[in-house]
Description:
Blueprint: E1 2-11, E2 20-25, H1 33-43, E3 47-53, E4 60-65, E5 70-71, H2 75-87, E6 97-104, E7 107-116, E8 119-127, E9 131-132, H3 138-145, E10 159-162, E11 166-171, H4 175-179, H5 185-194, E12 197-203, E13 211-213, E14 215-217, E15 222-225, H6 229-241, E16 251-255, E17 263-272, E18 275-295
Parallel strand pairs: 2-3, 4-6, 11-12, 13-16
Antiparallel strand pairs: 1-2, 1-18, 3-4, 4-5, 6-7, 7-8, 8-18, 9-10, 10-11, 12-13, 14-15, 16-17, 17-18
Helix pairs in contact: 3-5
Amino acid sequence: xxxxxxxxxxxxxxxxxxxxxxxxxxxxxxxxxxxxxxxxxxxxxxxxxxxxxxxxxxxxxxxxxxxxxxxxxxxxxxxxxxxxxxxxxxxxxxxxxxxxxxxxxxxxxxxxxxxxxxxxxxxxxxxxxxxxxxxxxxxxxxxxxxxxxxxxxxxxxxxxxxxxxxxxxxxxxxxxxxxxxxxxxxxxxxxxxxxxxxxxxxxxxxxxxxxxxxxxxxxxxxxxxxxxxxxxxxxxxxxxxxxxxxxxxxxxxxxxxxxxxxxxxxxxxxxxxxxxxxxxxxxxxxxxxxxxxxxxx
Length: 297
């Protein structure tokens, strides 16, 4: 029987029992994809990551699994895994920032880890320049969410945006509408085949947090995600293109409030609204537990 150490951290929070939990297996060499998927299903978190030796110029190779499938990229796993790689001494540590390059399914991905007294406390993942797709029909979007068209924001159309993964960014008219979202699974499956996974959000009417969002991904085995960094990136790019988020200005997105796991994701972009060159999503990381998993021979 093989014994695998693992570590669990809460991502996009500075305290335990909030944010998005992540399990990290730092000694995953020799595991098959089938074994990784079984372990991720057993952990039953939004994502579990497996750290492997680098194959290229990165620091480590990382595979990311939900309870149901493997992902080529995800935000909170990138942030949390980079912090664990630094904490475990798998890369040379520099203060106040250590750059970690993760080899992911989408290619090398840079993560800047904030280090204080040798301890990683937060990280920011650099996502791809955005690709914008044609707007999705407002009527279809409202029906998928179980809302009326009047619940959609009158000034912003739902648009699929890709910064590593593609999400349909859906600005709503109010936080009350966001709280009422009830996904129609049959309509959602058909919608996502034509467009992309949904990411509804609403302005809060205050400076911080700037926007509240919800991540509903039942087809990935995640009923509701406490935090979705891979979707917050497209959200930031969308808002920058619309002139709502000025380049280099950091804003905070709240997610997970509806399920008692408040998560605070810092977003920013570089470039111009017409030519965004870098999308960044970051936040704090808090260690929660460590343990061992017993893997049958």
